[in-house]
Amino acid sequence: MSRYGATHGHIGAQPVVVLQDAQAGREIRIARRGAALLNYRVRGAGGVWRDIAAGFRDEGEIASHPGSRFAVMAPFAGRIDDARYRFAGREEDLQPGVTGASRGIRHGFVRDALFDVLALDADEHRAQVVLGTSAIRPRPGYPHAIDLRVAFTLDAGGLTLEACMRNVGAGAAPCFFGWHPYFAIGDGPVDDWELQIPAQSLIRTGPDLIALAGAQAYVALDDAPALDFREPRRIGPSIIDQGYTDVEADADGRIHTRLRDPASGWALALWQERGVVHAFTADTVARGQRRALAIEPMECMADAFNRPECADAIRLEPGMEREFRCGVEVLPA
User: Fold this and answer.
1) pTM of the model as a whole
2) Domains of the chain (ranges plus CATH)?
3) Which of 4, 171, 206, 247 is the most buried (most CB within 10 A)?
4) How far is CA 14 from its chain centroid?
């Protein structure tokens, strides 16, 4: 019997894939709709299992994606200011005809997409699924075509997500990738968990959660001690819905955001190779307020389509592709 397994399954009518590590005691379920991770179960001391992923609970939530739990975000992550941006000399409106408070768009176009299974296999070294979609096609405000491929790999080092965006259109396209995971490493609220984010600056936003213009958007953490998590410390009553930038990599070249619950002993590190980190204490979600922490690795900051300093990073030429890698390492209790 192989250490790793990879199989198809269902939650009600919703198709899922399951990756397993029988030796270490780990199981991951991923919905094909939205390529959303649903569970990340790990066996701890004494054979006790814990699901560290606060994902969707049932087929209804998979379909309606409340809170965008574990959303794959492409061709943009976070919000776009007023659903408008300018690219290649053109003004684009992602919500033509919509006015007032109803305007607003975020997290890209693939949360409802039913991803194809391009590969599903396992051996003695890892279990992997590769999911793909061509859902990013010309639409109002986005006259571009992007093929998206997302690979989830479970191996001895943990879970790795590798996203690849390929521009299959005729002209350059704006795009960047993000992931929206929620983690629950303890049974109580996030207040008692310890968080470490290796960033030197935070992204300051207005009431609409859109970054302020120009250099006003960037604040050194020395000047924002209430949101400074450069050293591990208790989250406490802090309400966080915050982007962090100027992030620093460890010796392995990866940027690690760390989360630990002293009561349960469970801890994890979410790593990424570049970009920004967004943290969210889940104060406004429909269920489980402050019972999970979203740690979002993003290739660029939210509203990057409107940021001149992000213009080069989001531009993808026709026929070219760009990859983004991140992952989760879990330390069981």
Assistant:
1) 0.97
2) 4-331 (2.70.98.10)
3) 4
4) 21
